[in-house]
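Run ATPase AAA through structure prediction, thanks.
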Amino acid sequence: MANTESVEVTIKEAAHEDAGRGIARLSIDTMKALGLVSGDVVEVEGRHKAATLVWPGFPQDTGKAILRIDGNTRSNVGSGIDDKVRIRKTEAGYAKKVTIQPTQPIRLVGGEQYLGRILRGRPVTEGQLIRVNILGNPLTFAVAKVAPKGIAIVTDSTEIELKETPYEPKEGKREMAGDVHYEDIGGLDRELQLVREMIELPLRHPELFERLGVEPPKGVLLYGPPGTGKTLIAKAVANEVDAHFVTLSGPEIMSKYYGESEERLREVFEEAQENAPSIIFIDEIDSIAPKREEVKGEVERRIVAQLLALMDGLKTRGQVVVIAATNLPDMIDPALRRGGRFDREIEIGIPDTKGRQQIFHIHTRGMPLAEDVNLEDYARSTHGFVGADIALLAKEAAMHALRRIIPQIKIEEEIPAEIIEQLRVTNEDFVEAHKH
Ligand code: ADP
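Sure, done. The structure for ATPase AAA is below.
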């Protein structure tokens, strides 16, 4: 029987355009092997089980046992890119009622209709996370209950109940909320690939390095202007390999923890070792570890020495990786840039037109765009914009559209989903936003 068979496939990232659609792309030959047609429901079994709709894979994937799913589905499956999972065809009934809870305290007015529309035609199961982006606000909801139990498809007559109390996952630690995934990073394909090659392998397979007698990289330095996606990359990698993530802000260490900076550094490294695999992200490292000849105080000198010692002392066979970011690479103590510390450096530059278009796409993903919106045009006319500028512009355009309907709105407190449903963000909104 075709529908009880399962095959093993390797997870790959979804195309940018597919993110948020709740679909899985499977090569035609794999579909055939499982007796699947487009639109069938499959169960994906990784660390957890999740159900998704099947769409035919891209021509270049034909002949490969690849499953392309987005970050949200990867979280639901509990597996990351390059992990192997089993898939099988599954029967799904129709949902009578679906109970949904937010993962953070937020009131989404009219959210039932909104979520109903997003989930329409999709299979849902208990515990599944649903990630949406409402006017630049990433929100995560969880399916708390499905009736009848099991995998069921949401239809127009499915009753959606949206509770206000935040969802508490039943099984221990499960990735929650506002997570960053590879599909959320635009215009940095090559850079992201380099970071992944350096970090994913040692974090996932430390035994390989041990067997080969090769020292895995301990640190990667990302340098480039602010707002280009350095933090985003660090978070996404940590999330995708399910690593513990600790952030350390250079300026904060120097001010807030002044006098206890060394202690704080030690604590962070300890926390990382205890929770390995871990990624320690040090933002604005230049403020912690400036060139020693330029350092006046004894305190600063000691902190640099401490950081060097902690990195040299990392003995977890690649299970702790430090990613540091700076926009002033030349200001960093050269000792940190050699000898198995941050000896890999990757430039994260200002995006080109194509990169900007991808970033525009990412930040308008959940928005109801009017016909006259042309992201390619905006990408061309925003020379010099970095990712953070584009994210802000998209958000302002959406707010501009919203203000046409409701002049007084505090979107941080209450999101009027049913109004957002009728809203269209137009070219004029983008033009006005660009003027600011
Ligand atoms: P950096 O660490 O380089 O200063 P961040 O990664 O913190 O910059 O970026 C700030 C915000 O700008 C991100 O949260 C995201 O919304 C947006 N952004 C920046 N770069 C990109 C990018 N390459 N793709 C998509 N969004 C981006």
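The longest helix spans residues 387-405.
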